Amino acid sequence: MGKGRRYSAEEHLNLKKVFAVTIAFVVIIMAIVIVKKVLTKAKNSTPIEIIDYFALYQDDKWGILGSNGTVVIDPMYQEMPIVVDKNKDVFLFTYDINEEDGSYKIKAVNSKNEEIFTNYDKVEALENYDQAGNVWYEENVLKVQKDGKWGLIDLNGNEILNIEYDNIETLKGIENSLIIKSGDLVGLINNKGTQITDCQYSQITSFGDDYKNGYITVNQENKYGLISSSGSKILENQYEKIDNIYSDKYFVIEEGGKQKLIDKEGNTVLTDGFDEIKQIANSGIVFTSGNKYGVMNFEGNILINPTYDNLQEINADVFLASKDAKMGLIDIQENEKLGFNYKNITYNKLANLYIADDENYNSSILDSNFEIKLQGIISEMNTDDGYMKLKVDDGYKYYNFKFEEKNIQDILLDAQIFMSKNNGKYGFVDSKGNTVVDYIYDDATELNEYGYAAIKKDGLWGAIDKEGNIVIEPSYNLDNNLVIDFIGKWHLGLDLNMNYYCEE
Q1: What is the pLDDT of residue 487?
Q2: Does 333 share its domain with 420?
Q3: What is the spatial distance between Cα 325 and Cα 342, in angstroms, rounded to a whole number?
Q4: Of 1, 183, 206, 384, which is most buried by a Cβ count within 10 Å?
């Protein structure tokens, strides 16, 4: 009996422990199965290829080219397509053009050449352009018409602005700013369809060169005011005119045809001592007197005498000055920081450096202390990735914005091969310096972001891919092209503003 009781006690199962162990075992098995499925799926799946889109021209017809070199839509259209956003497969083609009465139709298609957004009477891109005439289209938005009224959709077809306006157009030269019209009055929205101000003005224009600076408004009584980028009032509509001279503290208005400088509260700051105010600078105003440029402070005291043919502040208290058809740099004390020996001088704010070009477009690059750090012909200034490419003598060199020379491998991080020059000929090497493409070419370019490089031989251009394989033998004369670039066998067209590829 005792033995039996002892045996029974020792062999009694702890059901809670058994249950816990069983659950843990099941969880482990499930985890193994899930991980196996995920790894199998990842192994068998094809990576998603991100494709950009470009206009394609061949045999007097237009189509669409993908950045992988494939023809997305065969050239079959009479007019060049509008690629609103190169990352989206939404393209606008013009057709049924009547040259006698100027009428035409526009349709939107996807990458399968299927017509989309067919529930609208009209679909149009919102065209814009800068002072140099370079055209762009407001991204991720289209204007659509139905029953004679206009609204907005995004490139996925979602309606982001009610179809109730008489017209919608861009504010020329300014991004993210669309004028809506209802009757004789206009309002303002951004590219997402968000209202900045309703249709209450007779005119809305830009203030400065960025939508973040705000807008000049004109009411029905022809009085000028100023609103911010969110639509809040900065200056009431009570002025004869507000000049488009940007500052966040002072404003140039006109009364009786005479300029006057005021502050945000409308208090008068300056009224005389100048013929015309040209710019509101850090320490005062750039003004003209007798067709010469100078600077006075906000108390009316002359800081730089009006002796220059032109004067423009390009950095805080640093002025691009012109005299005798030559440019130089001076500071607010009129100290000469860079001699008057140049055809053009610019300041790159993102890189914090000055670029001075001579008559032959050779550039001297200066740091913030006006010391010349580099000289050569600038081939590329990439502020996104923080480097510049200079042609020095017969070769190219790369530098960061600290003026440190960098290896090409440090710049083109995704590239497998790199352009190289030896004994006056160009080839390509891998990251270890091993020759991948023989040194047989007269000129070449680095791989572009899509994995293609241009090669030149006997005066003609061709292309290779990212592994050094010939895509097309040198066969194009591109002497008139400002930029040499290839996607597959297609080269960038002559007109850079049109941004298309062709094989002619």
Answers
A1: 98
A2: no
A3: 9
A4: 206
Kind and range of the H or E run holding 152: strand 149-153
- The one-letter code for the residue type at 43 is K
Boundary (domain end) residue, out of 286, 310, 342? 342
Query: What was the pLDDT predicted at 496?
Result: 84
Name the residue with tokens 């010939």: 470
Which of 342, 373, 391 terminates a domain? The answer is 342
Helix or strand holding residue 6 (H, E)? helix 2-10
The tens digit of pLDDT for each residue in 235-250 reads 999 999 999 999 999 9
Q: How many domains does the chain divide into? A: 3
In a domain, 495, yes or no: yes
Residue type, 202: S
Gap between the Cα atoms of 371 and 373, Å rounded? 6
109 close to 101: Cβ distance less than 8 angstroms = no
10-24, 37-51, 452-466, range with greatest mean pLDDT = 452-466
Q: For residue 286, give the CATH number of its domain.
A: 2.40.10
**Amino acid of residue 31:** A
Q: Give burial (CB, 10 Å; 0-12/13-18/19+) of 493.
A: buried
Q: How far, in whole angstroms, is CA 130 from its chain's centroid?
A: 12
Q: What is the CA radius of gyration of the chain?
A: 32
- Regarding whether 336 and 413 lie in a shared domain, the answer is no
Do 334 and 411 lie in one domain? The reply is: no
At 327, list the tokens. 């440019």
289 assigned to some structural domain:
yes
Report how far residue 383's alpha carbon sits from residue 396's, in angstroms, rounded to the nearest whole number.
Answer: 18
Whether 333 and 412 map to the same domain: the answer is no
Tell me whether residue 315 is in a domain: yes
Q: What percent of the chain has pLDDT over 70?
A: 90
In tens, the pLDDT along 258-311 reads: 999 999 999 999 999 999 999 999 999 999 999 999 999 999 999 999 999 999
Give the separation between CA 93 and CA 73, rounded to whole angstroms.
11
Cβ-based neighbour number of residue 223 at 10 Å: 16
Residue that is written with structure tokens 């960098």 in the block: 406
DSSP type of residue 212:
G
Query: SS3 for 26?
Result: helix
Domain hosting 30: range is: 2-37
